What does this fold into?
Amino acid sequence: MAKADIDVKYVAELARIELPEERFAAIEKDLLNIVDYIAELSEVDVTGVEPTAHAAALSNVWREDASRDSGLREAMLANAPALVNGFLVKVSKVLPGEESN
Amino acid sequence: MADKLNCKTVHELSEGLAQKRWSSVEIVQDCLDAVRSGDDRIHAFLKIDAEDVLREAALADERRAAGRARSAYDGIPVGIKDNIAVRGATVSCASKLLENVVSPYDAAAVVNLRARGFIPFGRLNMDEFAMGSSCENSAFGRTMNPRDVSRVPGGSSGGSAAAVAADFVPAALGSDTGGSIRQPAAFCGVVGLKPTYGRVSRFGLVAFASSLDQIGPLAKDVVDAGIIFDAVSGRDPNDSTCLPLDPSDTASAAGEGARTRSLNGLVFGMPKEYFSGPLSPGVEKVMEQAVSQIKAMGGKIVDVSLPHTKYAVAVYYIIATAEASANLARFDAVRYGRRVDGADLVDTYFKSRGAGFGQEVIRRILLGTYVLSSGYYDAYYLRAQKVRTLIRRDFAEAYKQCDLLLTPVTPAPAFKFGEKSDPLQMYLSDIFTIALNLSGQCGISVPAGTDEATGMPVGVQFLAPELEEDRLLRAAAAFEAVRG
It folds into this structure.
């Protein structure tokens, strides 16, 4: 594996986290330190080894595809930061140029 | 304090309730008093609704008086880690982002506890989103180790371990993704069980790394750990990764172990790779004593090898952070959570997440995002999943030569606050606990001695193959009974 480089600004954008620019350097140093360490996996011979995605040997657990009333609507909506008409979750404008709300 | 009910085990409380020596209200009142007088010093709890738990206790007493007790444990309080949902209580995961989020429902584990009459008692502090090994990452202040308040209680279930060690509650639920039950149990001198992956439903447990997370008990002794595990285990249609099995009955096995005090015929494997790195003298000494005790009890010790041990930390921090970056993507402060309004919706996501997540959570989300990002997936995530297969095979091979594994829980006893400021050093302290989450099997941390240099408790870890909790708890209870 080539020596890693990490563009913190780009990764933070992918993760949708706003970070003050003055923290980039410190975060980059921490991440590089960890990435250097995990790069030791490159020395393991994994030829022909299947990946393990899960510890439990379960596959295709089905349930009936039917709707049901959880009875939790009000309790769920009570956590919303802002509501419109008591049942729509209010958010900022989604598309550029659109009127807010 | 010895006569106070908060100091008793779950099985002692259950006997006394049956004999009408005390009531549930008296138990809960003693726990509340203990928290009131002692938690300023420890800060194990984020919140307790005293009125609610006393009301639940009164209802339990009524049921028992009417001959309708839900189980032998009806009316016994159990502390709940703040990432496990309890209806009507906040479920903040010790994060600013979720500070005021109230759970509309009970986690399956809590439903199961209530079905047996256990009373969910308070919200226990933790590392934010269960990411940490010291409880220093809580957004609401750290928890102190009851044995020495200048030292960490461990993490991430640090509040759960401290609350049991400080006699605030007889037992508590925690969650274990890489050692988050077993390590704080060892640091605080209590018992901590990580069940086999899939034995306890994760429905209502806020997800950190879904292929590793498992709910389990922290308790004063092995029998209690069995009682709480039995209560929460079993199939759940709401969690497709929960195994379709009946609830366990490990408390009987543990009780039998505690009575017979024998390890006759059991073979304990000691993985040589676990003893090749630095161990503190105190931990080394306690391990030696444990080995002699096991031999004296009729157990046999053999050397085994887990050749891929040195890669476990790397595999874990790739898989766990990758899964965390996906799981924590849901926290966008739209339907719940603390919102910081931005210019548009996407900007609101950026601002809310930037302001709401703590430093370690951001570090792990970024690491997980990086290892999953285009061009790196094969080198990191896919390769880690393959090495995970090799780690699982190591365990399967080892169990051909032994019934259980015996290892340290941590390289050293509880460290001081601020001692491990480098994230990688903190991650490396999880070396003995994380392989178990990668392999999916069960393990328990049991107090085994004291470190002479610091006076802090030291635990040993027993591991068993998947679904062998009976074997695990029988042996652990026998060991505990003889150690006293």
Remarks:
- Chain B has a mean pLDDT of 97.
- Chain B touches chain A through 75 residues (CB under 8 Å).
